[in-house]
Amino acid sequence: MSGMALHYDLHSHSTASDGTLSPSGLVQAAHAAGVNVLALTDHDTTDGLNEAGAVATRLGLQLVAGVEISVSWQPLTVHILGLNINPGCAALQDGLEGLSEFRDWRAEEIARRLEKSGIGGAYEGACALTRGRIVSRTHFAHYLVAAGHAVSVREVFKRFLVHGKPGFVPGQWASLEDALAWIRRAGGLAVIAHPARYRLTATRLRRLIGEFKELGGAGIEVVSGSHTRDNIDTMAMYARREALLASRGSDYHGPENPWVRLGELAELPAGCRPIWDSEVWPLH
Length: 284
Ligand code: AMP
Ligand code: MN
Ligand code: MN
Ligand code: MN
Description:
This protein folds into two domains: 7-96 and 172-277, TIM Barrel (Alpha-Beta Barrel), CATH 3.20.20; 105-161, DNA polymerase, domain 1 (Orthogonal Bundle). The chain is α/β, with parallel strands linked by helices. Helix 1 (23-32) runs parallel beside helix 2 (49-59), helix 3 runs antiparallel to helix 7 (176-185) and helix 4 (122-129) crosses helix 5 (137-146). It has helices at residues 23-32, 49-59, 90-116, 122-129, 137-146, 153-161, 176-185, 202-214, 229-241; strands at residues 8-9, 37-40, 62-73, 76-83, 189-192, 219-224, 245-249.
């Protein structure tokens, strides 16, 4: 494969979590968009990987087995990607099962809280929109839009599902330590997803990176579908300064989000070490 520049997109979602394309549909869409190497990184589940892998093999696209783990870090929820994981790892699957159970309880709790502010049927409504094991706030958002409580998913989050709003339930996700242990036990590389999204001060971001590196973390997502040009430059600076590998992924959730497209991403800035060029990347 050397010589030819491959097109990498190392962050995407399917109906196994809160994406709207099936794993097969996602791989087909990535292939059509010119992506050569795609990581399927569903929230807290690896259930889509088998189906995605079968289609990827047929199309000649390299599928990177991934997962995006929800982590509670101080008052925040942060997302840690595991790339090139072995989904058969029992330690990883036990960990993810615990997160799914919390999600199930949280879904009921979100619905109880929404009920108190006059919105009924949200649990059934959200569950009816899931296609896999994972119930996400995104499913609630789609249901609330369909039921006429808001005009967009963005508006639902703002009015109902974030801190201080009626349907907000604080997360009790994995610890950073657990998430990294599961990823490493599964033979994967840990990457801090969309680091600019947490709006951390420089001091706190350096602390997150410091703890992450101490636990064996490998990289940060410098280029993300949700990063501005400024965010990319800032995160490139952190990647270089903290000697972290740089990753690049759209965080694609489906065609309904026209501002995030599969594979349509900026290049990694000069001076960053792409995670796929490093000696730890097994799929050159
Ligand atoms: P959960 O993991 O169930 O708490 O849901 C988090 C997911 O909700 C993220 O992965 C995003 O896909 C989506 N999300 C979070 N915040 C927003 C927002 N403000 N607007 C739209 N989608 C959001
Ligand atoms: Mn999501
Ligand atoms: Mn995320
Ligand atoms: Mn994501």
